[in-house]
Specification:
The structure is a single chain. The longest helix is centred in the middle third of the chain and has 17 residues. The protein has a three-stranded antiparallel beta sheet. The protein folds into two domains: 62 residues, Orthogonal Bundle (Arc Repressor Mutant, subunit A), CATH 1.10.10; 32 residues, no CATH class. It has six helices and three strands, in the order αβααββααα. The chain has 119 residues and is mostly helical.
Amino acid sequence: MTDIKLGVIESRFADIIWRNEPLSSSQLAKLAEKELEWKKSTTYTILKRLCERGIFQNQSGIVSSIISKEEFYALQSEKFVEETFDGSLPAFLTAFSTRKKLSEEEFDSLMNIIENMRG
């Protein structure tokens, strides 16, 4: 998969789509005008760009995601750990926990995730 990134404003726009999909491109333009104060032309320009990146699709005027929000952020997280910690999740967790201690609830939640990943 290609390197998919979103800037801050693109992320806000993507969240509008993920929250409301599927929706018509005209509905999207109205939501972007309300939430981002964008003109219709700006909405369609950014939508086209995100469709070209393979995140969304606009088929017959209906906008929907190709990549879910969860999948997108999972890809971003994996890339961050790969680039910053040579792919080492333990190194990431060590760095993270150096400044922030986990609550009992967070610890239990992580342990459940690890157990489920272990299979």
